Amino acid sequence: MPDQFAGVHASYEKTINGRASTIRRTLYSTAGLKQGAAHDGPVIVKTILNSGGHPELRYRKNRDLGSRMARGVRKLLIPHYKRGLCPPYELYGSIRDVPEESWQDERLVVEKFLPGSFDLPVIKYRYCFLFETELNLRTAYDDLLCSSARVGDNEIVKAVPEAVMEVRSRLNIDFSAIDYFIVDGEVTIIDANKTVTTARAWMTRYEFVRDYIDRLTRTLIDFAER
Asked: Which residues of the chain carry a pLDDT beneath 70?
């Protein structure tokens, strides 16, 4: 969050995510690797920022007319301009394959690819919540980067790991989706989101997702009315 907005929440009686000033990955991820680490397995290179850094890019773009004009010129003149500002995730079979420039780029972090191989499906967990309205899912993806359009089995898991709840508390988030893996009984959190969305296809396919959205909507209305 830009510094000038850090105290805005104090001007309001109630806020949603008002105290969540940052969700930077380095605050909670334990999957990070240093260059030269003795890790035997695939790795993933990500942006440190949430959603590839797109919220920060939109903020910079819309600050003033000059910023919008300068960005427009750069976008026309520089090939793959947006891709350079918001690098996509990259997978590598070994830590030794990660390019030197990725290690030197402060916007990026190198992490273990927690499924441990490039075999499908990938089993990932997601804990969604707005205040005390919750949905905790175990999802099998037919895609290494877990595209919401490539889903197989999807089921509710009642117990939310203590490590996930600790991150929720520490980041001061009221509305979020926290993504995590469970490998050999160990919980590793990989993403804590404030830009939460739900795929339309999931609404159609899964009754429990529709139920969660209905409960979330009622919670939001209650929050506003009270």
From this structure: 50-85
